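dumping this here before i forget
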Amino acid sequence: MKSVHTLISRIRESEKNGYAFILPYIIFFCLFIAYPLIFSFILVFHRWNIVTPMEWIGLRNFIRLFQDPLFARAIINTLIFLVLHIPLQIVIALFFALLLNSAIKLRGLFRSVYFFPVVVSGVVVTILWAQLYNYENGLFNHILTALGFSAIPWLVDPAFAMPSIAIMATWKNVGLYIVLFLVGLQTIPSYLYEAAEIDGASKNYQFFKITLPMLNPTIVVIFILSTIGGFSLFIEPYIMTGGGPMNSTLSAMLYIYNQAFSFNHMGYAAALGFVFALIILFVVTLQRRIMETEDYST
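structure:
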């Protein structure tokens, strides 16, 4: 009987220790996740400019949102960025992953080099590329003019601005997806390729019938991660173009930021954020249903 009481007291003591260990995260969650979400939900029904007290306005923020052509433009710009950025990123990441998965010299060094832009500050990378894109003094236009071509208005022409940002964002993030593709490639059983070679299958046939189907789970993950990252597009247009020219690079995140911190429309910015979060949820869910299959090995 005494041993049972001892065991119970030890269990209770371990439970107390467990609560003590998770207490810092509970405090963090309440302060930085739960409270901001609850406050934002309350804020969507108010008009507030930080200085004056909040004013209850009901659903007016949402009525204004659905009548706001600039928010619709920001959503369209973000979708255009995704259409440009995601296929470019997947193709480039898969190409380099296949290259690095083969027996080449200095393979470890190349893996580190490709991943290096991921860990560099996004602000630093954006400032660097803004200098490269400079119309008069940028390196890219210097190379083009030296080769006899005309200079390209990378960031000052609406037709080139968003594709230029998509190229820069791809360079910044592609290292992460190269690593993910490498992990996926290394999990493919080698006997599948050996059997295909015995049957006389070409490299192209092996790629489309073995490699791509086996990489399907990885492609789904990368597609979803790229979509979520693309919807959070902010630093690049904020530093490079400020949303211009002619609002051609105004992303949804940048528009929400402008409403909150440039115009002090905190309630309206909160409503924009909630609707934007629902759009992201819808798009990601739709992607998963389209791309995922029941059997990845077929």
